[in-house]
Write a structure and sequence with these properties.
single chain, 102 residues, alpha+beta, 5-stranded mixed β-sheet, 1 helix, 5 strands, binds zinc ion
Length: 102
């Protein structure tokens, strides 16, 4: 068993879209790591509890001999941390209020 670097799937970041009028959801890969084109993968339907379960390795439509790993597009950190900070502040407010009264 040698190294399998050549076969290691590349990451393909995707966003979840639903098709209007249907319950079908797709993972939309905006930039294929191999050809740069957009590819779609069926993610399941809206009744599925967790479409994330359909993430993972797929053969690249442009080159079936290669695979890529479909993963959620990372969200911008700033937005996330801002919300987290606001939530933390909100959650901690009651405790802080007690301190302010003293
Ligand atoms: Zn491709």
């Amino acid at each position: 068993m040698g190294k399998k670097d050549r076969n290691t799937p590349r990451m393909a970041f995707a966003s979840l879209r639903d098709m209007p009028g249907t319950r079908v959801m797709f993972w939309v890969v905006d930039g294929c790591p191999y050809c740069g084109e957009r590819h779609l993968h069926i993610a399941g339907n809206l009744r599925m509890a967790d479409p994330g379960e359909s993430l993972g390795e797929y053969p690249a439509p442009c080159d079936p001999s290669r695979t890529y790993e479909v993963a959620l597009t990372p969200r911008p950190k700033r937005k996330q941390s801002k919300e987290a900070r606001r939530k933390a502040r909100r959650d901690g407010k009651d405790e802080v209020l007690d301190d302010d009264k003293w």
